[in-house]
Amino acid sequence: MRYFLVCLFAALGLAAGMPAAAETWPTRTITLVVPFPAGGATDVVGRTIAQALSDRLGQQVIVENRAGANGQIGSAAVAQAKPDGYTLLMGGVNTQGMNDVLYKNRRYDSLKDFTPIAVTSVIPVAFVVHPSLPANSLQDLVRLAKERPGQLSYGSSGAGGPHNLAMELFKSIAKIDIQHIPYKGGAPQLNDLVAGHIKIGAIGLPPALQHIKQGRLRALALADGKRTSFLADLPTVAEQGYPNFEVNYWLGLFGPAGLQKDVVTRLNKEVVDILKQPAVRETLAKQGVEIVTSTPDELGSLVAKEISRWGQVVKDAGISLD
Question: What is the domain extent for residue 187?
């Protein structure tokens, strides 16, 4: 009898130390970390999904903006969190791809420290110019750059971001020399573009869209692999003589490494279902966000592909942020 009781208490002790079964998740508030300031595209997508997840899961999903170091601060916080499903990350090609090759002393490893859950969306990236610049096409811009090597400059929302690296990749392929002016965010970059203080920009299409439609900016090309419905007449870089050029600024949902499979499956299903809802699609479309979804494995493969690809771009361009 004594042996039986010892075994029973040991088993109960083991059970108490085990994580709760996935079917009991969630039982409390979930935190979705957005590693960038409020108001940007990542934040808009994160908050839209968080609100819908709160309704579907029966627990509040709150958004916490933890910006800094190109998204490293917020991403690292999630990487170090318990893999219990209560701390998630709205990451993307910049945090789970580009940062891994930009920083020698990075704060996390995207392939080892996170559990991929689902791709959520793509933010179109455009190359634009101020109307005062005599360039009506990408070919015009290349011609000007070759006539004035090192004299032209372009702005981006920050060093090492997807807009910066998209233009650096294009410069490498087109063999042109245009200087980079990094801004602390897309808003000040856009203000200077519209005012004509800088003449060229690599920028997310959503904030620039109305300025393009009203003639305050001229869009030359879309960096994505296909055209966007938001500007159907705007050709891609690949369509203008640079085959296979494709830069996708995608966003996705991640958890810490070791997240239970049942929780991952549940979250993937909920997010995919949320992004099918007409109201959600309309909300994101108004922001210029294109909805794209995936399985967890597809997102994991995408991260690995992006790290490999951008490693070569960064090496060729000689970019380092350490």
Answer: 125-223
Q: What is the pLDDT of residues 91-125, one digit of tens each?
A: 999 999 999 998 888 889 999 999 999 999 999 99
- Round the CA-based radius of gyration of the chain to a whole number and report it: 22
Claim to verify: residue 256 and residue 114 sit in the same structural domain: yes
129 shares a domain with 117: no
Give the CATH number for residue 142.
3.40.190.10
10 Å Cβ neighbour count for 93? 25
260 vs 288, more confident: 260
For the chain, the average pLDDT equals: 90
Do residues 89 and 255 make contact, with C-beta atoms less than 8 angstroms apart?
yes
> Residue 92's pLDDT is what?
96
Rounded CA gap, 194 and 197, in Å?
A: 8
Distance CA 269, CA 274 (A): 9
320 has pLDDT over 70: no
Residues 53 and 116 in one domain: yes
Whether 271 and 312 share a structural domain:
yes
